[in-house]
Amino acid sequence: MSPLPSLHKRDASCTYYDASCSTHRLVILVIIIAIGIVVSAILSLLYVRSRKSKANKMRLQSQRQQAQTQQRFTTWESSASAPPPYEPRKPERAARAAEDWR
């Protein structure tokens, strides 16, 4: 015969208020709670790890963008010379008088 009827018979002999089965229930309850704590700790650690990974990727991406922007800015400054100083435009009559225009 299979061991299932003996297990069923032992379980049927335990009542809710019987002291002989309370230790078994306590052990099973402690095991279930321990498994729940371990699983929740693992899930929490995985969540924190993924958040840190995303934050590191974002920080690395922003640092790369800042470096590229800084590099573009430094190359632009070196290639562009200063604009000429501002000289107001002379009216035509003044320009003609300066050239002795007749």
Distance between the termini: 133 Å
Average pLDDT, to the nearest integer? 77
**Which stretches are low in confidence, meaning pLDDT under 50 for 5 or more residues running?**
none
- Which outline best applies? rod-shaped
Q: What fraction of residues sit in β-strands? A: under 5%
Features of this protein?
mainly alpha; 102 residues; 3 helices
What does this structure look like?
With 102 residues, the chain is mainly alpha-helical. The chain has a domain at 19-74. Helix content is 76%, strand content 0%. It contains three helices and no strands. It has helices at 4-13, 19-79, 92-98. The longest helix has 61 residues, at 19-79. The model has no long low-confidence stretch (mean pLDDT 77).
Annotate the secondary structure layout.
Blueprint lengths: L3 H10 L5 H61 L12 H7 L4
Question: What's the gist of this structure?
Answer:
It is built from three helices and no strands. It is mainly α and 102 residues long. The N and C termini lie far apart (133 Å).
